[in-house]
Amino acid sequence: MRPLTRRWPAAAALMVCVGLLVSAASPATDDEPLTLDDFPALTDGVLTNPLFAVRDYSQSPAFFTVRPYDPAPATKQVEQVEQEQDQTSVTLASDILFTVDGSDLSEPAVAAIGALVAQVPAGATVTVDGHTDSVLDDAYNQALSERRAQSVAAAVAAARPDVVLDVHGYGESRLKVPEGGDDLAEDRAQNRRVEVTYTGSAPEATPTPTPTAGAAAAGPYGGAGLVVPVPESLEAEQTVDAPGRPGEKLRIGVESLEVRGGSMRLRIVLERLDGPSDPVTLYELMDQAVLSPGVADRTRLVEYRTLSNTGQRWSTDPVALDLVPGVPVRFEATLPAPLYPTEALAVSVDSRWPTFEDVPVTFS
């Protein structure tokens, strides 16, 4: 029979190592707190001991290594340009161009669309196709897609009266991606779009500016959602339906939108207004969907989404966040810092609810 051996995990070995060092340290009195100088120097014996040796994790699997902060995947310009042979297709993100359920374009949006079609050959046919997600019914989505396509077509016509327009609305009949993956909110955002297609060269790419707020952030700000007193004042608030609990209402409000270094912290207050007194998770209230707020710059036409790292969002965990009627809770999300100087941004807590427009931005 093989003798039994005990293998110590790395954490236990570290505690033993620290214990040995502390035991060898000079005792400190209450008046003289322990400092680094009180610890003995590391000897070759300690450094070469297999239990305590310094370990190199440079060749370890990814989950053992430090992951760099990269805001690029969470920052989205209004247009995505693709060219195949001589055909150019420009996909415009509806969440940046329009408010929720809206179809009116701002003056900056009209100007941006005009710049995108500046290189269209004279007399060319420009196809404008509007698309939605599948959240509401077919008839509503069809009408919304048509209105949005017409708004974009009007902006194209204003900049290029010499082109021929072919305008369509397809509602939810031509989804770009299926809406049922691990990231439902992102799937729906991709499907809410207006596509502009023409024959000719693609527009010149606009250089991406550097963030205005400084160095990159070290990590997320918030952890668990905590029960908080009702703020004396919110930047904005509204009452909405709870998607996963028919008949129940939620009070949602934007508490603050604060830029710190290379990231932006969004604080949202949520409160169940009715329903049974038993706790219900935010995940269930959202119809088993992860809350992933977004922020849009309506002037510069840039969208900022909740940062994530290997699939884990930098936000409060909606599965562990319980809500009971009458008790507000705070939800925090971390997003990239704005690329451009700005005083106010639009906040979308969920695509099924109205957007909070002109939320003030503070810098610290």
Automatic annotation (TrEMBL):
Keyword terms: Membrane, Signal
GO cellular component terms listed in the entry, alphabetical order: membrane
OmpA-like domain boundaries: 85-202
Pfam families on file: OmpA
UniProt signal peptide: 1-28
Stretches assigned to coiled coil: none
PROSITE patterns on file: OMPA_2
Regions that span the bilayer: none
UniProt protein name: OmpA-like domain-containing protein
UniProt organism field: Cellulomonas xylanilytica
Lineage of origin: Bacteria, Bacillati, Actinomycetota, Actinomycetes, Micrococcales
